[in-house]
Amino acid sequence: xxxxxxxxxxxxEMHGARFESVVAPSAGSTELCAWRTTVTPGTAGQPHxxxxxxxxxxxxxxxxxxxxxxxxxxxxxxxIFAPAGSSVKLDNDSETEAQLWVTTVVGLTxxxxxxxxxxxxxxL
Length: 124
Description:
Number of domains: 1
CATH topology: Jelly Rolls
Shape: globular
Largest sheet: 6 strands, antiparallel
Number of strands: 12
Order of helices and strands: EEEEEEEEEEEE
Distance between the termini: 20 Å
Helix content: under 10%
Strand content: over 45%
Structural class: mainly beta
CATH superfamily: Jelly Rolls
CATH architecture: Sandwich
């Protein structure tokens, strides 16, 4: 059974956030992806629609997640489920860093409101 630590994570930066990929095809996974997202204070996220389900576990901070237009401030320990086809936006309008653990399936893509399709490199 593979065991990973955060020193094994592959970092990526996008839209003012840091994504540290731990589980992905590049690490041997064929079905799941998992990463830690770190969002600095005062960061407004990029809205996007996901084509697969995502689960977010808030590790630290009090970010605001907007699902299908409804914003909710969440705290450490909160779990957020984003169904496939939902619009997601993650903001950190607090004064402290926010960290979340995110899990989804291999093959996730996201579409921005302008129609741009994003294949997150941390899921490859």
